[in-house]
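ok new one. same drill as before - structure tokens go in, u give me an amino acid for every spot. 904 of them this time. try not to just spam alanines like last time pls lmao
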């Protein structure tokens, strides 16, 4: 990277800097005229110089030049104005100059801002581009939070400085010199006084600010280290809690914050000391002007207009001078920060940009062997984890790698996948080093999966298809307005040296996955998910999800058909009792009291049970139907039973998982409430206490909780109140309650609730599992499996995929690798979280699917269990970084060597 920030800025913004410097030079003309004009106004119309007699006039706007070799040139003879009109004319010119100077400043500052933002965008992109080209080993020595902080925060001042790098000294220096020259032209001695003060400020203040620069550098380093430490705490929070080291981390953070505080306190002290001296010097000059200038005026050596003009000119001198000194400090400060960034991002062995060039064209098949020649890998401690290993993998060959953990096989797999660079030797294809091949070939035709998984924040779909997103293949369908905006954005990207790649296009290489487009991608995804045993997980996620009706109209529009098909299937299986359907004129025993009252669902978080219980319309309805006392009494008994049964249980007791109406934290609150209301009636409770008690009844289900509180009479009352509730429902409630309708999809309910249009009978053994399987079959029979899969793939995996279980992450990671349909598939112990039996099933399913899929890739699988080796054509046995045996399972068993020992 360029070591000098000034050279970096100039080389990338040369033409823009030259243009704005020309504008700055042009702005000095009206700036100088604005200094001279007050003198003309005071000496001329105000004091009457040139207007000694009534009716005298003077020429206004006389424009003439004396040009060498040509002579005197008259451009405009001007106007003859009286004293009053001359005052008006000169004042209007002064106003025009003020406006013109303001417009120059507006244009210059706007141009600088845009120039700075472009440069900030450029440097941030370049740094991220370098991160993407770091050698793999470098990431073991850096903290992600520190890199992120540098790119986000530490380069921020560089963008602001870019616009000021050349313009600010030219503008401020030009203004200061213009004001100083004007003062000297008015009076030599006043000019020398101003020049002396300026010299002191220009020499002394920057020297004093060197200490500020050092303190600023220390502040930057400590802040970056704090960011990295916070990132470590977040990443290692599980280890911290497991080892009771939270207070150790608190002490560490407190010490770091104390160091930052002391640095910043010293910085503030020194900063304000410098500011005090600078301000003092700036205020001494007016004192000298008034004293010396007044003395000269009294002697008649300086007229009043000149003195006013000098004071007015000096008024504009300290500002530019101070800002010029600030600019110099900013320059040095930003240069220090830039040096730190250069130091951090100047890494040896960066990946050549040609390796990562964009290639929309399909990658050609790899038809040659994958050859490792004398490959040696040394870990960070200096130990050889792979020692001069040579092996050849033929296209289509199925190879198993076995050995103890750390025996060396996993490092060979990483070298094949380009995740580890050999310290000596090389991995090659057709005689070319794999590290010199473009990623558009190796990244598409070689797939790699291990137990170390990472998923970006987004949906399951985006992460599953991530391995197919290499270039924008299908342009987005923009409206005319959107196309104009996109064109402007691409133009700005080009000016900032960013790639002109439209993220809104479709990047998925459907052909590489074996699909013709987005309409049939699920026919390719489904077999892969089946092979890695992930289909049922995604199906369950879909059933528990709320469906975006706009995106899945193909499924939501057929909800009535789905409900009917489910009923018919239950009848075929003689399992009608598994589901109790919703009926408007009947109470559903398997639903909560609240659901029966509403015959619908609440749109959360706009409405909750607590808010509903406190709503005036609800209270009025309860009072009119007599339900208010019934539900209050029910809630009171629920509270009494819950407190009596669960008061002595620990908060993590499994019984609380069945307690839908109350949490462990609520027990003490209701215990105190019961003691207060003991023996008192409904009238003794406050409105908030009544709402808290009644709320408990909303979540009550008799067959599940079995407190014996739901009588036939009460159920009939609730059904009657339901009909009355919807007669005059207010608009605010109608907007947050979605009523059940057998002919309509309920957007605020889950997909499973919509298909059931009822509730599963809790007393039936294994009812949820049986219903899930029946639903799976119903969706498949109606040809809607892809629609359900699409809903499941909308699931947000969270930061780093942490909303998925470890097992699900490893399955999804393996599925993502398989979906690429690569020529070489490398599986480096991809499923250690699963037991050996399930690993065996998945391995058999994958190898069987690959054989029947119409293409036969090479598979290199580092096995956790050597007994699976019989599934492969050849077995490589590693020990202490060496390849000790190679051959088929039959041959290796006959040798009675290390492979046989591993099996035993």
């Amino acid at each position: 990277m360029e070591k000098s920030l000034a050279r970096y800025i100039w080389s990338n913004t040369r033409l823009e800097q030259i243009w704005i410097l020309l504008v700055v030079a042009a702005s000095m003309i009206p700036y100088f005229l604005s200094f001279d004009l007050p003198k003309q106004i005071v000496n001329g119309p105000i004091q009457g110089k040139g207007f000694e007699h009534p009716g005298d006039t003077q020429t206004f706007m006389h424009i003439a030049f004396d040009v060498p070799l040509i002579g005197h040139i008259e451009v405009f003879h001007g106007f003859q104005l009286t004293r009053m009109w001359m005052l008006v004319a000169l004042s209007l010119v002064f106003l025009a100059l003020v406006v013109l100077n303001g417009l120059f400043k507006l244009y210059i500052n706007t141009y600088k801002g845009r120039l700075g933002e472009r440069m900030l965008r450029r440097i941030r992109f370049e740094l991220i581009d370098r991160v993407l080209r770091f050698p793999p080993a470098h990431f073991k020595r850096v903290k992600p939070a520190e890199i992120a902080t540098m790119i986000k925060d530490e380069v921020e001042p560089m963008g602001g400085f870019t616009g000021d790098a050349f313009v600010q000294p030219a503008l401020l220096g030009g203004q200061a010199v213009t004001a100083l020259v004007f003062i000297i032209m008015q009076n030599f001695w006043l000019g020398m006084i101003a020049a002396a003060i300026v010299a002191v400020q220009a020499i002394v203040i920057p020297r004093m600010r060197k200490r500020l620069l050092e303190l600023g550098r220390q502040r930057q380093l400590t802040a970056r280290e704090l960011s990295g430490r916070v990132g470590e705490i977040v990443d290692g929070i599980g280890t911290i809690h497991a080892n009771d080291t939270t207070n150790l981390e608190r002490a560490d953070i407190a010490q770091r914050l104390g160091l930052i505080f002391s640095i910043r306190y010293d910085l503030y002290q020194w900063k304000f000391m410098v500011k005090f001296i600078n301000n003092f010097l700036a205020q001494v000059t007016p004192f000298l002007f008034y004293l010396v200038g007044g003395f000269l005026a009294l002697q008649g050596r300086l007229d009043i207009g000149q003195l006013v003009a000098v004071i007015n000119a000096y008024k504009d001198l300290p500002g530019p001078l101070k800002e010029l000194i600030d600019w110099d400090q900013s320059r040095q400060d930003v240069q220090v920060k830039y040096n730190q960034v250069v130091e951090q991002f100047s890494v040896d062995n960066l990946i050549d940009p040609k390796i990562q060039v964009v290639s929309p064209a399909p990658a050609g098949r790899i038809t040659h062997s994958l050859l490792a020649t004398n490959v040696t890998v040394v870990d960070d401690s200096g130990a050889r984890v792979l020692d001069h290993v040579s092996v050849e993998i033929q296209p289509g060959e199925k190879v198993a790698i076995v050995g103890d953990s750390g025996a060396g096989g996993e490092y060979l797999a990483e070298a094949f996948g380009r995740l580890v660079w050999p310290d000596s030797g090389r991995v090659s294809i057709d005689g070319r080093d794999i590290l010199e091949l473009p990623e558009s070939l190796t990244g598409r035709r070689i797939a790699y999966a291990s137990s170390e998984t990472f998923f970006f924040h987004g949906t399951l779909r985006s992460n599953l298809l991530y391995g197919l997103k290499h270039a924008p293949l299908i342009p987005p369908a923009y409206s005319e307005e959107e196309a104009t905006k996109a064109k402007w954005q691409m133009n700005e990207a080009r000016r900032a040296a960013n790639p002109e790649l439209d993220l809104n296009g479709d990047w998925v290489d459907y052909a590489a996955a074996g699909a013709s487009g987005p309409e049939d991608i699920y026919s390719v995804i489904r077999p892969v998910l089946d092979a890695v045993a992930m289909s049922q997980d995604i199906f369950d996620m879909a059933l528990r999800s709320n469906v975006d009706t706009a995106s899945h109209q193909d499924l939501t529009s057929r909800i009535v058909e789905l409900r009917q098909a489910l009923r018919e299937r239950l009848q075929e299986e003689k399992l009608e009792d598994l589901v109790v359907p919703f009926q408007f004129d009947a109470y559903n025993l398997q639903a909560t009291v609240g659901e029966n009252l509403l015959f619908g669902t609440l749109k959360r978080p706009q409405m909750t049970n607590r808010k509903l219980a406190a709503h005036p319309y609800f209270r009025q309805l309860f009072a009119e139907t007599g339900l208010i006392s019934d539900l209050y009494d029910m809630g009171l008994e629920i509270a009494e039973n819950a407190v009596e049964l669960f008061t002595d249980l620990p908060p993590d007791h499994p019984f609380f998982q069945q307690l839908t109406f109350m949490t462990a934290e609520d027990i003490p609150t209701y215990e105190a409430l019961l003691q207060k209301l003991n023996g008192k009636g409904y009238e003794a409770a406050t409105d908030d206490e009544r709402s808290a008690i009644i709320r408990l009844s909303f979540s009550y289900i008799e067959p599940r909780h079995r407190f014996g509180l739901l009588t036939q009479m009460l159920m009939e009352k609730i059904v009657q109140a339901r009909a009355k509730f919807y007669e005059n429902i207010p608009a605010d409630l109608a907007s947050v309650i979605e009523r059940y309708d057998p002919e309509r999809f309920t957007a605020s309910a889950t997909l499973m609730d919509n298909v059931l249009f009822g509730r599963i009978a809790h007393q039936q053994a294994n009812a949820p599992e049986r219903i899930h399987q029946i639903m799976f079959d119903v969706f498949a029979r109606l040809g809607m499996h892809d629609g359900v899969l699409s809903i499941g793939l909308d699931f947000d995996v969270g930061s780093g995929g942490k909303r998925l279980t470890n097992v699900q992450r490893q399955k999804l990671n393996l599925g993502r690798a398989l979906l690429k349909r690569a020529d070489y598939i490398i599986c480096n112990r991809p499923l250690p979280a699963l037991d050996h039996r399930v690993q065996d099933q998945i391995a058999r399913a994958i190898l069987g699917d690959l054989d029947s899929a119409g293409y036969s890739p090479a598979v290199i699988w580092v096995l956790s269990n050597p007994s699976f080796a019989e599934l492969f054509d050849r077995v490589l046995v590693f020990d202490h970084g060496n390849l000790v045996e190679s051959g088929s399972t039959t041959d290796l068993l006959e040798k009675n060597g290390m492979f046989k020992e591993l099996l035993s």
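The chain has a mean pLDDT of 84. and btw The chain has 36 helices and 20 strands.
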